[in-house]
Write a structure and sequence with these properties.
single chain; 370 residues; alpha+beta; 2 domains
Length: 370
Amino acid sequence: MLLSLGILTFILVLSRLGKMTDLVINKGVGITDIVLLIVYSSPTYLTFTMPMAFLLSVIVVLGRLSTENEVLVLKASGIDLKCFFVPISAIAVIITFCGLLNSNILLPKSSELFRNTLINIIKKGVSIEDKEGVFNDTIPGVVIYVDKVDVQKRILTGVMVSDDRDKEVKQTISASTGYINVDPVTLDLYFVLENGSLHRWEKLQDAYRSVTFQNYTFSMNLSTMLPHSSELRKRSYEMDRSELQKSLLTAKESERYDIWLDIYKKISIPFSSLAFIFLTIPLGVKRRVEGKFSGILYSLLLFIFYYVLIAITDNVGQLINLPPFITSFTPNIIIAAMGLYLLRNLNEEEHTTVQQKLRQIWMFCLEKIK
């Protein structure tokens, strides 16, 4: 199970490695920051990989017992196969408890740390305290030059900014003094400049403008410096319960249902491990000679089915205005009901494999179509 958990989480984290590589190559971000970003992004995936690893490991282990006739020996000895529920349920309870801690405590904190690390990376990229007399082109389309920097007072002297972000408008700003500020929430960077001039050329109108000023604020958003700016926005599933409760007060009526769903999913998804108990035992025990990797295939298909169930029930629940609590737990109920149905003949010896049954169902459907 631990091996499955590590592999599945690593595979999902790989989806972000491309963005991380861009930060290293193009932005000059240190390896330490990249490692922190990977660690802080892991709890997002652990929400799903923990139940998935539990499902996969139990099916594989029980399938191994079945293919090596250990299950047959238990039946011949008169042992009820439902005794498997004791150790598997104990593991499921541990996984559920860890999942609740992850989704309600660890995930909100790690998402906040992930966001703060990204902001610190941006701040390092636009830092001008160690770049006196250097043309800083870290921000795409903008070149900043500072003659001198008073580190203690954070006052800039001899500032020049060339802004070429808009292809239709070119402007250059120069000022004798100023200071810089970054808003950590919106990631807006502000240059507050004093005693300077602005030179602006508008290509469409072929107009050149020159303005002198005593005070001027030049602003830009730094989210474009990141591979994916949406990662800075805190999504509802990354919030803790208190933040979700606060967002309910200001949310629109159409958004309230989704917020309630996210609140209950922090409980229902970790509880999926308990629902999977009823399916893992019959699927693992009933396997015979489908192959060593059939257990992995069954578990992956089952979890995909569970994920599709979540998407379907969310849409249907919102369409018919089903209570969010029922909507969030409906996939667990369906999975548990399927497992209870398969558990009816758990101790009976069957001569057909799961693969053969599926082939029989497929052939039956083809005959009906003809």
